[in-house]
Amino acid sequence: MRRILAFLSGLSAVGAGASAYAQQPREWQINLQTPATPFAEAGLAFNNLLLVIIIGISVFVLALLAIVIFRFNAKRNPTPSKTTHNTLLEVVWTVVPVLILVVIAVPSFRLLYLGDRVENPEMTLEVTGYQWYWGYEYPDQQIDEFASYMIPDEEIDEEAGQLRLLSVDNPVVLPVDTDIQILVTAADVLHSFAVPAFMIKTDAVTMRWNETWARIQEEGVYYGQCSELCGIGHGYMPIEIRAVSREAFDQWTIEQVGDAEIDPENPPVLLTTTWAEAMAERDAQVRLAAAE
What we know:
Distance between the termini: 62 Å
CATH superfamily of the largest domain: Cupredoxins -  blue copper proteins
CATH topology of the largest domain: Immunoglobulin-like
Helix content: 25-40%
Structural class: alpha+beta
Number of domains: 2
CATH class of the largest domain: Mainly Beta
Oligomer: single chain
Number of strands: 10
Order of helices and strands: HHHEEEEEEEEEEHH
Shape: elongated
Protein backbone atom coordinates (compact mmCIF):
# COMPACT_ATOMS: atom_id res chain seq x y z
CA MET A 1 0.00 0.00 0.00
CA ARG A 2 2.87 2.38 0.84
CA ARG A 3 4.43 1.78 -2.57
CA ILE A 4 1.11 2.29 -4.34
CA LEU A 5 0.53 5.59 -2.53
CA ALA A 6 4.08 6.71 -3.36
CA PHE A 7 3.50 5.82 -7.02
CA LEU A 8 0.23 7.77 -7.14
CA SER A 9 1.94 10.70 -5.43
CA GLY A 10 4.62 10.64 -8.13
CA LEU A 11 1.98 10.67 -10.84
CA SER A 12 0.21 13.63 -9.28
CA ALA A 13 3.50 15.53 -9.02
CA VAL A 14 4.20 14.94 -12.70
CA GLY A 15 0.68 15.97 -13.66
CA ALA A 16 0.91 19.15 -11.64
CA GLY A 17 4.21 20.10 -13.26
CA ALA A 18 6.14 19.33 -10.07
CA SER A 19 5.54 22.22 -7.71
CA ALA A 20 8.99 21.75 -6.11
CA TYR A 21 12.25 21.28 -7.92
CA ALA A 22 13.25 17.60 -8.18
CA GLN A 23 16.79 18.24 -7.00
CA GLN A 24 17.69 14.59 -6.47
CA PRO A 25 16.35 11.16 -7.47
CA ARG A 26 13.09 10.25 -5.74
CA GLU A 27 11.33 6.96 -5.10
CA TRP A 28 8.98 5.91 -7.90
CA GLN A 29 10.02 8.85 -10.03
CA ILE A 30 8.80 8.26 -13.60
CA ASN A 31 9.76 11.51 -15.26
CA LEU A 32 12.90 13.61 -15.67
CA GLN A 33 13.88 15.93 -12.86
CA THR A 34 12.20 19.32 -12.95
CA PRO A 35 14.35 21.55 -15.19
CA ALA A 36 16.32 24.30 -13.45
CA THR A 37 17.93 25.92 -16.51
CA PRO A 38 16.69 27.10 -19.94
CA PHE A 39 18.60 24.27 -21.62
CA ALA A 40 16.96 21.71 -19.32
CA GLU A 41 13.53 23.16 -20.14
CA ALA A 42 14.26 22.83 -23.86
CA GLY A 43 15.52 19.29 -23.30
CA LEU A 44 12.36 18.31 -21.42
CA ALA A 45 10.21 19.76 -24.22
CA PHE A 46 12.18 17.74 -26.78
CA ASN A 47 11.80 14.61 -24.65
CA ASN A 48 8.04 15.13 -24.50
CA LEU A 49 7.91 15.59 -28.29
CA LEU A 50 9.74 12.29 -28.76
CA LEU A 51 7.33 10.58 -26.37
CA VAL A 52 4.36 11.73 -28.47
CA ILE A 53 6.02 10.51 -31.67
CA ILE A 54 7.04 7.17 -30.17
CA ILE A 55 3.59 6.53 -28.69
CA GLY A 56 1.94 7.43 -32.01
CA ILE A 57 4.18 5.03 -33.94
CA SER A 58 3.63 2.25 -31.39
CA VAL A 59 -0.15 2.64 -31.47
CA PHE A 60 -0.15 2.69 -35.29
CA VAL A 61 1.98 -0.46 -35.54
CA LEU A 62 -0.16 -2.18 -32.89
CA ALA A 63 -3.29 -1.32 -34.87
CA LEU A 64 -1.77 -2.76 -38.06
CA LEU A 65 -0.84 -5.96 -36.22
CA ALA A 66 -4.36 -6.27 -34.84
CA ILE A 67 -5.84 -5.83 -38.32
CA VAL A 68 -3.52 -8.46 -39.78
CA ILE A 69 -4.22 -10.90 -36.94
CA PHE A 70 -8.00 -10.64 -36.90
CA ARG A 71 -8.83 -9.86 -40.54
CA PHE A 72 -6.29 -11.90 -42.45
CA ASN A 73 -6.00 -15.05 -40.39
CA ALA A 74 -6.46 -18.41 -42.08
CA LYS A 75 -10.04 -18.86 -40.82
CA ARG A 76 -11.37 -15.49 -42.04
CA ASN A 77 -9.25 -15.37 -45.20
CA PRO A 78 -8.72 -18.94 -46.50
CA THR A 79 -7.62 -17.71 -49.94
CA PRO A 80 -4.82 -15.16 -49.42
CA SER A 81 -4.03 -12.47 -51.95
CA LYS A 82 -1.06 -12.97 -54.31
CA THR A 83 -0.23 -9.22 -54.36
CA THR A 84 3.51 -8.60 -53.89
CA HIS A 85 3.96 -4.92 -54.73
CA ASN A 86 2.06 -1.71 -54.13
CA THR A 87 3.79 1.41 -55.44
CA LEU A 88 1.73 3.88 -53.44
CA LEU A 89 2.26 1.95 -50.20
CA GLU A 90 6.03 1.70 -50.77
CA VAL A 91 6.26 5.45 -51.42
CA VAL A 92 4.25 6.19 -48.27
CA TRP A 93 6.29 3.98 -45.96
CA THR A 94 9.47 5.59 -47.33
CA VAL A 95 8.35 9.23 -47.24
CA VAL A 96 6.56 9.20 -43.87
CA PRO A 97 9.57 7.95 -41.86
CA VAL A 98 11.74 10.58 -43.58
CA LEU A 99 9.27 13.30 -42.57
CA ILE A 100 9.23 11.98 -38.99
CA LEU A 101 13.04 12.14 -38.88
CA VAL A 102 12.98 15.72 -40.16
CA VAL A 103 10.50 16.65 -37.41
CA ILE A 104 12.90 15.13 -34.88
CA ALA A 105 16.09 16.52 -36.44
CA VAL A 106 15.13 20.21 -36.49
CA PRO A 107 14.54 20.64 -32.72
CA SER A 108 17.38 18.18 -32.03
CA PHE A 109 19.98 20.35 -33.81
CA ARG A 110 18.50 23.46 -32.19
CA LEU A 111 18.88 21.83 -28.76
CA LEU A 112 22.47 20.75 -29.46
CA TYR A 113 23.37 24.28 -30.50
CA LEU A 114 21.71 25.74 -27.39
CA GLY A 115 23.67 23.47 -25.07
CA ASP A 116 27.00 23.83 -26.85
CA ARG A 117 28.33 27.00 -25.20
CA VAL A 118 27.42 30.47 -24.00
CA GLU A 119 28.95 33.32 -25.99
CA ASN A 120 29.36 35.94 -23.25
CA PRO A 121 29.60 34.18 -19.88
CA GLU A 122 29.55 36.29 -16.73
CA MET A 123 31.78 33.83 -14.88
CA THR A 124 33.62 30.55 -15.33
CA LEU A 125 33.72 27.38 -13.22
CA GLU A 126 36.55 24.93 -13.83
CA VAL A 127 35.78 21.32 -12.88
CA THR A 128 38.44 18.60 -12.61
CA GLY A 129 37.67 14.94 -12.05
CA TYR A 130 40.01 12.93 -9.85
CA GLN A 131 40.06 9.37 -8.51
CA TRP A 132 37.55 9.69 -6.86
CA TYR A 133 36.40 13.20 -6.09
CA TRP A 134 35.84 16.54 -7.83
CA GLY A 135 37.96 19.68 -7.76
CA TYR A 136 36.47 23.14 -8.41
CA GLU A 137 38.15 26.43 -9.24
CA TYR A 138 36.76 29.92 -9.90
CA PRO A 139 39.34 31.73 -12.07
CA ASP A 140 37.32 34.96 -12.40
CA GLN A 141 36.84 35.18 -8.63
CA GLN A 142 40.46 34.09 -8.00
CA ILE A 143 39.29 31.22 -5.79
CA ASP A 144 41.88 28.44 -5.90
CA GLU A 145 40.83 24.87 -6.55
CA PHE A 146 39.27 23.04 -3.62
CA ALA A 147 38.38 19.36 -3.31
CA SER A 148 34.83 18.08 -2.87
CA TYR A 149 34.48 14.65 -1.27
CA MET A 150 31.37 12.60 -0.57
CA ILE A 151 30.34 12.53 3.09
CA PRO A 152 30.70 8.96 4.42
CA ASP A 153 27.56 7.13 5.52
CA GLU A 154 28.52 7.21 9.18
CA GLU A 155 28.87 11.01 9.10
CA ILE A 156 25.58 11.82 7.35
CA ASP A 157 23.51 14.36 9.28
CA GLU A 158 19.92 13.72 8.21
CA GLU A 159 18.61 16.54 10.39
CA ALA A 160 20.73 18.96 8.37
CA GLY A 161 19.22 17.60 5.16
CA GLN A 162 22.28 15.66 4.04
CA LEU A 163 21.66 12.78 1.64
CA ARG A 164 23.51 9.48 1.48
CA LEU A 165 25.77 9.13 -1.57
CA LEU A 166 24.91 12.69 -2.71
CA SER A 167 26.01 15.21 -0.05
CA VAL A 168 29.61 16.46 -0.05
CA ASP A 169 31.87 18.30 2.37
CA ASN A 170 32.56 21.26 0.03
CA PRO A 171 29.64 21.91 -2.32
CA VAL A 172 29.85 24.12 -5.39
CA VAL A 173 28.32 27.57 -4.88
CA LEU A 174 26.86 29.21 -7.99
CA PRO A 175 24.69 32.29 -8.52
CA VAL A 176 21.22 32.24 -10.07
CA ASP A 177 20.28 34.32 -13.14
CA THR A 178 23.88 34.22 -14.36
CA ASP A 179 25.37 32.76 -17.55
CA ILE A 180 28.01 30.37 -16.20
CA GLN A 181 30.63 28.78 -18.41
CA ILE A 182 31.60 25.33 -17.12
CA LEU A 183 34.93 23.87 -18.26
CA VAL A 184 35.45 20.19 -17.48
CA THR A 185 38.66 18.14 -17.52
CA ALA A 186 40.24 15.18 -15.71
CA ALA A 187 43.54 14.58 -13.96
CA ASP A 188 43.73 10.80 -14.36
CA VAL A 189 41.02 8.62 -15.94
CA LEU A 190 37.79 9.47 -17.75
CA HIS A 191 35.00 10.99 -15.66
CA SER A 192 31.70 12.65 -16.57
CA PHE A 193 30.20 15.74 -14.91
CA ALA A 194 26.43 15.25 -14.88
CA VAL A 195 23.66 17.25 -13.17
CA PRO A 196 20.17 16.02 -14.21
CA ALA A 197 18.27 19.17 -13.17
CA PHE A 198 20.55 21.20 -15.47
CA MET A 199 20.45 18.44 -18.11
CA ILE A 200 24.21 18.62 -18.54
CA LYS A 201 26.51 15.63 -18.91
CA THR A 202 30.01 16.54 -20.03
CA ASP A 203 32.92 14.11 -20.28
CA ALA A 204 36.04 14.89 -18.27
CA VAL A 205 39.05 13.93 -20.39
CA THR A 206 42.69 14.24 -19.37
CA MET A 207 44.59 17.11 -21.08
CA ARG A 208 41.41 18.45 -22.66
CA TRP A 209 38.79 21.04 -21.69
CA ASN A 210 35.19 20.24 -22.59
CA GLU A 211 32.71 23.09 -22.33
CA THR A 212 29.10 23.39 -21.24
CA TRP A 213 27.08 26.09 -19.51
CA ALA A 214 24.18 26.74 -17.15
CA ARG A 215 21.87 29.56 -16.14
CA ILE A 216 20.22 28.48 -12.90
CA GLN A 217 16.73 29.89 -12.48
CA GLU A 218 15.89 28.99 -8.89
CA GLU A 219 17.86 29.01 -5.65
CA GLY A 220 18.26 25.62 -4.01
CA VAL A 221 20.44 22.53 -3.84
CA TYR A 222 21.01 20.39 -6.94
CA TYR A 223 22.71 17.02 -7.06
CA GLY A 224 24.54 15.04 -9.70
CA GLN A 225 27.07 12.23 -9.98
CA CYS A 226 29.93 11.04 -12.13
CA SER A 227 28.36 9.29 -15.11
CA GLU A 228 31.43 7.52 -16.46
CA LEU A 229 32.65 4.14 -15.17
CA CYS A 230 35.89 5.55 -13.81
CA GLY A 231 36.97 2.84 -11.38
CA ILE A 232 36.32 1.39 -7.95
CA GLY A 233 35.18 4.74 -6.49
CA HIS A 234 32.90 5.65 -9.41
CA GLY A 235 29.75 5.57 -7.30
CA TYR A 236 31.25 7.75 -4.58
CA MET A 237 32.00 11.06 -6.31
CA PRO A 238 28.71 12.99 -6.23
CA ILE A 239 28.14 16.61 -7.23
CA GLU A 240 26.37 19.05 -4.92
CA ILE A 241 25.56 22.53 -6.22
CA ARG A 242 24.14 25.23 -3.98
CA ALA A 243 22.47 27.95 -6.05
CA VAL A 244 22.28 31.30 -4.25
CA SER A 245 21.42 34.88 -5.13
CA ARG A 246 23.99 37.01 -6.92
CA GLU A 247 24.42 39.11 -3.77
CA ALA A 248 25.00 36.01 -1.63
CA PHE A 249 27.50 34.70 -4.17
CA ASP A 250 29.48 37.94 -4.00
CA GLN A 251 29.55 37.68 -0.20
CA TRP A 252 30.70 34.07 -0.42
CA THR A 253 33.43 35.10 -2.87
CA ILE A 254 34.71 37.77 -0.46
CA GLU A 255 34.77 35.20 2.37
CA GLN A 256 36.65 32.67 0.23
CA VAL A 257 39.27 35.15 -0.96
CA GLY A 258 39.74 36.40 2.61
CA ASP A 259 42.85 38.45 3.26
CA ALA A 260 44.80 37.15 0.28
CA GLU A 261 46.90 39.65 -1.58
CA ILE A 262 44.86 41.12 -4.41
CA ASP A 263 46.30 42.77 -7.50
CA PRO A 264 44.46 46.13 -7.66
CA GLU A 265 44.79 46.05 -11.44
CA ASN A 266 43.15 42.62 -11.63
CA PRO A 267 40.79 42.14 -8.66
CA PRO A 268 38.30 39.26 -8.28
CA VAL A 269 35.13 39.67 -10.35
CA LEU A 270 31.94 40.34 -8.41
CA LEU A 271 28.48 40.21 -9.95
CA THR A 272 26.60 43.00 -8.16
CA THR A 273 29.37 45.47 -7.36
CA THR A 274 33.09 46.07 -7.88
CA TRP A 275 35.81 44.69 -5.64
CA ALA A 276 36.87 48.20 -4.59
CA GLU A 277 33.31 49.15 -3.61
CA ALA A 278 32.87 45.90 -1.69
CA MET A 279 36.10 46.44 0.23
CA ALA A 280 35.18 50.04 0.99
CA GLU A 281 31.77 48.94 2.32
CA ARG A 282 33.37 46.22 4.45
CA ASP A 283 35.88 48.68 5.93
CA ALA A 284 33.06 51.10 6.70
CA GLN A 285 31.15 48.37 8.51
CA VAL A 286 34.26 47.45 10.52
CA ARG A 287 34.79 51.06 11.54
CA LEU A 288 31.11 51.41 12.49
CA ALA A 289 31.24 48.25 14.61
CA ALA A 290 34.40 49.46 16.32
CA ALA A 291 32.84 52.83 17.07
CA GLU A 292 29.80 51.18 18.64
